[in-house]
Amino acid sequence: MISKDFMWGAAMAANQCEGAYLKDGKGLSVVDVLPDAAHGRWDMLYHPEKYLGRKLDFYPSHEAIDFYHRFREDLELLAGMGIRAFRTSISWPRIFPNGDDSEPNEKGLAFYGELFDECRRHGMEPVVTLCHFDTPYALVEKYGGFKDRRAVDAYVRYCQTVFERYKGKVRYWITFNEINMITHIPFLGGGILLEGEENKPQILYQAAHHQLVASAIATKTAHETDPENRVGCMLAAGSFYPYSCRPEDVMASIEKNHENYLFIDVQSRGAYPGYAKRIFSENGIKLHMEDGDEALLKENTVDYIAFSYYSSRLTGTGEEVKGKTVDGNAVTTLRNPHLDITAWGRQIDPIGLRVTMNELYDRYQKPLFIVENGLGCEDIPEPDGTVSDDYRIDYTKKHILQMQEAMKDGVECMGYLPWGTIDLVSAGGGEMKKRYGFIYVDRDNEGNGSLARRPKKSYEWYKRVIASNGEDLD
Ligand code: BG6
């Protein structure tokens, strides 16, 4: 059922694994000023202004898991599982330390060149995100990040540079990680500070428009640079269910889904959808478009729909749901009484993956690509160092089964890339304690540990899954 070239793989991101945050000419990114869990990481995501300028002793991204220096050993371990596709991101400030320097940083370019060569040597297809939560911090200071249209020019120049440099080495690109996050955690999503702004929705959607234009130009440039290039958008997905069959709840779930689909509608269908007009008028938003923007969006749509899926979401309008919210990966959702929930407050819904895939495919009719999915939880190694993560195997197995069901429903799916395949720093909490990997990394929340890598029980399991092309899930 699953084709031989299905991309069973692994997914990571530069800002959460590389470390070496100022090495070889790299500049700061927005993530590099985010504190660890104990010093207000979550709060800073929502109120960055309160923290900027403070100096701490420890920032999790500065060393992360030191992938920058250990990538050969790490790819070797991934290759040992039979990984066919490796998703990572290029750190924009490693290539342009200030975001818009006159010349790119050759050492940064050389690093990714070696990384992609090494992937190919192991038979892994690189899947590369161009901006995964790491807008150069200098652009925040200079322009206010993507608030200002000049960030588009900087992003496009960066993309052009890496498309040319890695022509023939990288074919699969993703323009912005979870583009819908810009309205939820705008500092991480686009280097945006909102304090003092009178009309916050105006700022957010204008910045989102800038990213959408930037994404369309990048898509055009990628296609012109190499017709073999395939470019995807990327959604933090998870369909909203209605809390009840009350018509108001059903309508509310449609509206909540629209808030996220809006971005992908532009990137995949090439125009702002009808409901966007209503969102804009009800929130006092007047989008400024330049001549040619509409044509650009229309003519440069993406080739595939990449998405992350951790859980479904839930919304409702009745009195009975008031105050019953939990974390939906930075998107607020109601607690679904039919679902289990992790210690970090994330609900577990494998069938929701099938629901989400059907909705996305019905809507866009383009190949889907699962580029993140996984269970974030604490792993406690045995005295001999082994980690028996049956809970992770169970989670992943159930999601793969539902992915296969969706494919039987007729959904085209290019691949499955579980998130944080090697333990890395969590984006939301900045923790190491919350782990997703099939490979354990000896490092704690405070930055202690040898950084040694050790396969967990899930490593051998996933190896069998890949070898059997998804047949052997036990
Ligand atoms: C996605 C991001 O939102 O979720 C990743 O693309 C992130 O960067 C992942 O790590 C899991 O979230 P967290 O907060 O548990 O790391």
Kindly identify the CATH topology: TIM Barrel
Tell me about the largest β-sheet: 8 strands, parallel, barrel
Structural class: alpha/beta
Mass-distribution shape: globular
The CATH class is identified as Alpha Beta
Q: What would CATH call the homologous superfamily?
A: Glycosidases
Helix content: 25-40%
N- and C-termini, Cα separation: 18 Å
Overall pLDDT score: 97
* Global Rg: 21 Å
Strand content: 5-15%
* Integer tally of domains: 1
Q: What's the total number of strands?
A: 16
User: Uncertain segments of ≥5 residues (pLDDT<50)?
Assistant: none
Which strand order spans the largest sheet, edge to edge or round the barrel? 1-2-3-4-5-7-13-14
Number of helices: 16
Bound small molecules, by name, code or SMILES, are: 6-O-phosphono-beta-D-glucopyranose
User: What is the architecture at the second tier of CATH?
Assistant: Alpha-Beta Barrel
3D structure, described in words:
The chain is an alpha/beta fold and 474 residues long. Strand 11 and strand 12 form a beta hairpin. It starts with 6 loop residues before the first strand and ends in a 7-residue tail after the last helix. Bound molecules: 6-O-phosphono-beta-D-glucopyranose. The site of 6-O-phosphono-beta-D-glucopyranose has 15 residues, from loops.
Would you summarize the structure shown here?
39% of the residues lie in helices and 14% in strands. It has 474 residues and is an alpha/beta fold. α4 packs parallel to α6 (106-121).
Fold topology:
Elements: E1 7-11, H1 14-17, H2 41-46, H3 60-63, H4 67-80, E2 85-89, H5 92-95, H6 106-121, E3 125-129, H7 137-143, H8 150-165, E4 172-174, H9 186-190, H10 200-225, E5 230-237, E6 240-242, H11 247-269, H12 274-282, H13 293-299, E7 304-309, E8 313-315, E9 325-328, E10 331-334, E11 340-341, E12 347-348, H14 350-364, E13 368-372, H15 390-408, E14 413-416, E15 439-441, E16 453-455, H16 457-467
Parallel strand pairs: 1-2, 1-14, 2-3, 3-4, 4-5, 5-7, 6-8, 7-13, 13-14
Antiparallel strand pairs: 9-10, 11-12, 15-16
Helix pairs in contact: 4-6, 8-10, 10-13, 14-15
This protein binds 6-O-phosphono-beta-D-glucopyranose.
The site of 6-O-phosphono-beta-D-glucopyranose has 15 residues, from loops.
